[in-house]
Write a structure and sequence with these properties.
Distance between the termini: 11 Å
Helix content: 40-55%
Strand content: 15-25%
CATH architecture of the largest domain: 2-Layer Sandwich
Largest sheet: 6 strands, antiparallel
Order of helices and strands: EEHEEEHHHEEEHHHHEEHEE
Shape: globular
Number of helices: 9
């Protein structure tokens, strides 16, 4: 029987924001909250990234059914996106549904590569400023080290370092990623020297974080995450953009109170903070403190499975 659709996980960027756009490595994780799509005979409204991905799928695979019902509710709170990559997950789920509908095995690496390429093209046609790291996480799942230089993409799986505790917190404020990127791009145009200095620091820290993650050094992960948060704030100050806004700064302060480190997960300006700890009790204390301070812990499992038929 033909699968009725597919699902894909959301993502959380552990490190590499902005620097990944300049070729530095990012570390990203798939999370257990998922976007699902299913075929329908009706004509429901579809997000633009879903429509675009379907067009690319038809171009490479042939005729497909016309419409999909898209459910992104697990990546929202009170119908507000919480910054876990719902658009990229929707594109990945759409590409997976198209391949599954024609009998392609989503467990095969070659099929996953085709799904990723299709979803990447569909998503990029709507959001061309991105690196594709979120699409990779939603397609392949798990933990990934991702780097891109031009059209050349390198992505490989990682393992969660032993003893590392990771927590997510929603600030309650939705970020406008396109506006933040626009301000950063303006800095690159108007003050290339200052932009280069900011990105050099972020790139250096991205390499350090990826190396620490790969070599199982959780203490270095915490130290690098704290430095990366500071460097994101410096980029925001240079660009006149609220990358490290008051909510995200407060999350970082609370994490430090519990001997951890927190930074924006994504472009900043709101959405989610990601926090790292060496002790589960400290991580739990951080979550309780966040609740008391008006921040919202997000319950997820880490390293979720990538696309799957349903």
């Amino acid at each position: 029987m033909r699968p009725g659709g597919a699902s894909a996980p959301g993502k959380a960027l552990l490190c590499g924001e902005y620097a990944v756009l300049e070729g530095a490595p990012a570390v990203v994780a798939a999370v257990s909250r998922r976007v699902s799509v299913r075929w329908t005979d009706g004509s429901p409204p579809m997000p633009p990234e879903v429509q675009a991905t379907l067009q690319y799928a038809r171009a490479s695979l042939g005729p497909l059914e016309e419409s999909l019902i898209v459910d992104v509710s697990e990546l929202q709170r009170d119908r507000i996106k919480i910054g876990l990559g719902s658009s990229a997950a929707a594109a990945a789920a759409t590409a997976a549904a198209a391949h599954a509908a024609l009998g392609h095995d989503l467990a095969k690496p070659s099929t996953l590569q085709e799904v990723f390429a299709c979803a990447l093209d569909g998503h990029a046609s709507i959001a061309p400023q991105g690196s594709g790291v979120d699409v990779a996480a939603s397609t392949y799942g798990g933990f990934l080290r991702f780097a891109r230089k031009g059209k050349e993409i390198e992505s490989r799986p990682l393992r969660l370092p032993k003893g590392l505790q990771i927590r997510l917190v929603w600030t309650g404020h939705a970020a406008r990623t396109s506006e933040l990127l626009g301000q950063v791009h303006a800095l690159r145009r108007d003050d290339p020297g200052r932009y280069a200095a900011c990105l050099e620091r972020l790139s250096e820290l991205s390499h350090e974080f990826a190396s620490a993650f790969e070599t199982d050094r959780p203490e270095m992960i915490l130290a690098t995450a704290a430095s990366f948060s500071t460097a994101m704030g410096a980029l925001g100050d240079a660009a006149g953009a609220p990358i490290l806004d008051a909510r995200l700064r407060h999350a970082a302060e609370l994490a430090a109170r519990f001997s951890g480190a927190a930074k924006p997960s994504g472009a900043g300006g709101g959405d989610v903070a990601i926090a790292f700890f060496l002790d589960a009790d400290a991580a739990h204390g951080f979550e309780l403190a966040c609740e008391d301070e008006g921040l919202h812990p997000i319950e997820v499992s880490w390293g979720a499975q990538g696309v799957r038929a349903c």
